Amino acid sequence: xxxxxxxxxxxxxxxxxxxxxxxxxxxxxxxxxxxxxxxxxxxxxxxxxxxxxxxxxxxxxxxxxxxxxxxxxxxxxxxxxxxxxxxxxxxxxxxxxxxxxxxxxxxxxxxxxxxxxxxxxxxxxxxxxxxxxxxxxxxxxxxxxxxxxxxxxxxxxxxxxxxxxxxxxxxxxxxxxxxxxxxxxxxxxxxxxxxxxxxxxxxxxxxxxxxxxxxxxxxx
Length: 220
Description:
Radius of gyration: 18 Å
CATH superfamily of the largest domain: Cytochrome c-like domain
Strand order of the largest sheet: 1-4
Largest sheet: 2 strands, antiparallel
């Protein structure tokens, strides 16, 4: 597991109300102790997408969603106790967003030296984040993604600004969020593009999900 804290990138990305906030990564790490109960110590999520991956996520996106939970704009009952202002003020939100954004999860199996015992090998392998390939037409999904989704989530699926990273995220979680957007149960992060998902058919969505699982591993 590798951790990389991109101080300059964080400070550039954590602009709130026109002001750049200094972040405290140690405080973010401490706050993550609470998040870890569901999302895991390294922010990898779990239970096949019941809890989403939050490691490496865009800091502006984390900030916006935590504030939405706190304001109950985005309804998620388990998050309410942890995102009340007395528990999670703006400063803490910036700190945890910066800390999580700096966690880099490997997508490749580790190279063993031969000195590791069986338990150590299992523990090393468990830290690798590989989302299983989803069924669907990858070529059609890629064309649709680049046409409909890339302007917000980037051509690589790594997100942009306040729009989240999609690659490396659990397929079941993404599909659940798509369904919530389409039903109007979750507000879209940008009203102007809120109708994109509603204009797609189920198979088209499945194809996009399949495409996202095909590009999660970085090319050498």
